[in-house]
Amino acid sequence: MTTAATRHSDRRISPVFLGILAVTAVTGWATWTGFAAQPGVAVFLFVTAAWIVSLCLHEYAHARTALHGGDLSVGTKGYLTLNPLKYTHALLSIVLPVVFVIMGGIGLPGGAVFIERGRIRGRWRHSLISAAGPLTNVLFAVVCTAPFWLDALDGVPADFRFALAFLALLQVTAAILNFLPVPGLDGYGVIEPWLSHGVRRQVEPFAPFGLLFVFALLWVPSVNGAFFDVVDSLLGTLGIHEFDTYCGYELFRFWRDPSGVCEVSP
């Protein structure tokens, strides 16, 4: 078994991650109960903390799949502890994704864990390692949208419903964008093992810029509109209306004056 070569301490959940979970739970409770004097602050902290939790799980999925694929180094690097401070690019992994959310309401995880691909044998394993991250976002999206498509929102406070809808939107956008076959994103990682050596060498120099290219492209109004039409349509089939995600984003940006369209609890 490949996992036998990793120490127990290499797989122990980090106190940092547990702290982020605690922030998620406390601010989620504050959003639900209306305990916070400013509901927007509670929504901001709840969504941000939950988003960071999903980023950690996204990268953990990559690392765990790589471990079972043959890369035992992920344990010694601390990737199995869910500690975001262990990531190879903390700026790309945590800071930029949060900035993307604030600026445009877009969930876009960055590259974080370094997999020693030379230890992995078999193209299918390489593809699965790349797919594991965005599949985690899909699972997270299912959890966030479940109360909507199960019609289980009776009695749920509006602020919490809005926050959950916005969090679901982030997970859906993250899953869609990460599956794009763009160098530097997981979608390209899925197909890369099946490309010829020559094609891979030609594409390799562009990989560091793939994430920024996608984000810049989303600032083009026509592209942004088409992208969110797809996202809203998908969320709509899951019972989440555009009004819910809009109000969630409005609450999230607590530093702005409310538009008046959403009913914000006192």
From TrEMBL:
Transmembrane portions of the chain: 16-35, 90-115, 127-150, 162-185, 206-228
- Is Hydrolase set as a keyword in this record? yes
Q: Which CDD domains match?
A: S2P-M50_like_1
What is a GO molecular function of this protein?
peptidase activity
Q: What is its main location?
A: membrane
Cofactor(s) demanded: Zn(2+)
InterPro entries the record matches: Metallopeptidase_M50B (IPR052348), Rip2-like (IPR044537)
Any single biological process term in GO: proteolysis
Topology relative to the lipid bilayer, per the entry, is:
Multi-pass membrane protein
List UniProt keywords, sorted A-Z. Cell membrane, Hydrolase, Membrane, Metal-binding, Metalloprotease, Protease, Transmembrane, Transmembrane helix, Zinc
Task: Name the domain of life this protein comes from.
Answer: Bacteria
Kindly list the places in or outside the cell where this protein is found, as annotated in its UniProt entry: Cell membrane
**UniProt xrefs under PANTHER family:** ZINC METALLOPROTEASE MJ0611-RELATED, ZINC METALLOPROTEASE YWHC-RELATED
Family in the record: Belongs to the peptidase M50B family.
Name this protein carries in UniProt: Site-2 protease family protein
Q: Which organism is it from?
A: Streptomyces marokkonensis
